[in-house]
Amino acid sequence: MTSHTWYLLLVLTVAIGLLIYLINSRLRIHPFIALVVVTTGTGLAAGEPVAKLTGSIEEGAGGTLGDIGLTLALGAMLGRLLSDSGATDAIAHAIVDRSSNRRLPWLVAAAAFVIGIPMFFEVGLIVLLPLIFSVARRLEDDGATKGSPYVLLGVPAIAALSTLHGMVPPHPGPLTAMTGLHADLGLTLGVGIICSIPTVILAGPVYARWIAPRLADVRPDPVLVAQFTGVDRNNAADTTHTSSTCPAEGTRTDTLQRAGVSTGLAVTSVLIPVALMLLRTLAETVLDESSTVRAALTFVGEPLVAMLAGFLFALGVTLVRGGRSSEATRSSLTDSLKSIAAILLIIGGGGAFKQVLQDSGIGDAIASAAEGAHLNVIVLGWLIALLLSLTTGSATVGIVSATGIVAPLIGTGGGLEASLLVVAIGAGSLGLNYVNHAGFWLVKESFGMDLGQAAKTQTVVQTLVSVMGLGMALLLSVLA
Questions:
Q1: 434: buried, middle or exposed (CB in 10 Å: 19+, 13-18, 0-12)?
Q2: Which bin fits 373, alpha (ψ -120 to 50), beta or left (φ > 0)?
Q3: Do the Cβ atoms of 273 and 307 come closer than 8 Å?
Q4: What are the φ and ψ backbone dihedral angles of 183, each rounded to 5 degrees?
Q5: HEC string of 81-136?
Q6: 415-428 and 460-479 are packed helices; what angle lies between their axes, rounded to 10 degrees?
């Protein structure tokens, strides 16, 4: 490698270190601001012309948000509709009702897998807490399990939700990586699901059976349990405000009782976007390019159109069968968009960082170094996402930064390697989830754990998901 190549790699190393420092310093600079500052400094240090630098930042941020922003917004609104209508509760209860105690962890994992398709990790867990707590109380009263029933049922939900969130589009992380790596949507979706199933099994029900007896004293705050299960609600009403964990969910039991959305319609709402995306891939595989059917399926299988179809179906079902006024529905949809504003900004900042890396020549330097070192690009993408997520506390930062760094290594051809790299990067962003991640604290406080217990659940489960995701991606790369 030339001296200039080494210099560009040094610039990248310093940029990553500065990004980590800004996010974790005493100032606690927002990741979006940190990304913009680091992106600008990186471009200047790498010698990109000032007149071109601002264009690179705008092109990277705008292009990334153009590909992802609308889809992400529709996904957030779809998840909120299903939650507020009681549809997600209907899905979950349909899966776990009338089942044996031994099968419950597996069925909770299945419920979380379905619900996790359109929902972020934190939102999905909040939605599932009433079900987990209700069933855990039943097991606790019956004395039907060894150890903590809350851990036994919570771990499978954590595993399934985190796996879907990190490895399967249309979640923002994998969708961002897929766009940056020019990966095929349907192929990435199929590969993500194939990698997810064994990952959820091992990190979920299997690990839950092992860890639950070792955390026998884990039990959530009784007030929180009453809030989510509807038991002794009058006694808890005056004290529920003391819990900072999702107080708005205190009426979920009532919501479920009045919801008129059937389980079948709820499942249909969730699966419509997935089905349309898969149909697109099938059409592009088996139908001629001149086929009208192929053109139609390609259009409806675009992430934006597919998510819009699922959202409109859910909206119609909610208004007609859900028993909620149009004004209340509109208010919920507005609130759902507020929750993703920060994510959109981070994704835009990551897109700008990626574009500057490419336009300044750093991307070519990375490709040259990786080629000389004979690094496996799947392992490299996973490792970069893991380290950046760990050090910045943001899985999104890990994904968008890792995508920009490894994108030059695979070109623009897409194919199976690009889809496997999407899965690996998403899996890497999940590992070593600890105190600088919001999800860690949500799990800790919701289940009444101390730091050590939360590490043995949230941190270990997501690290298992991360390692299994990498392992499955490597296995498919060898078998393909």
A1: middle
A2: alpha
A3: yes
A4: -80, 150
A5: HHHHCCHHHHHHHHHHCCCCHHHHHHHHHHHHHHHCCCCCHHHHHHHHHHHHHHHH
A6: 170
Q: What is the DSSP letter of 322?
A: S
Q: The tokens of 115 are what?
A: 């619900």
Q: Which two tokens stand for residue 71?
A: 């889809």
Can you give the pLDDT at residue 235? 44
Distance, CA of 287 to CA of 270 (rounded, Å): 27
Whole-angstrom Cα Rg for the chain:
22
Neighbours of 475 (CB within 10 A): 14
CB-neighbour burial class of residue 46 (10 A; exposed 0-12, middle 13-18, buried 19+): buried
**For 336-379, what is each residue's pLDDT tens digit?**
787 677 777 877 887 788 788 778 877 677 666 665 666 788 99
pTM for the full model? 0.68
Could you count the other beta carbons within 10 Å of the beta carbon of residue 59? Answer: 16
Q: What residues have CB less than 8 Å from 479, skipping those under 6 apart?
A: none
Residue with tokens 């101390």: 450
Cα dihedral 464, 470, 474, 477 in deg (nearest 10): 130
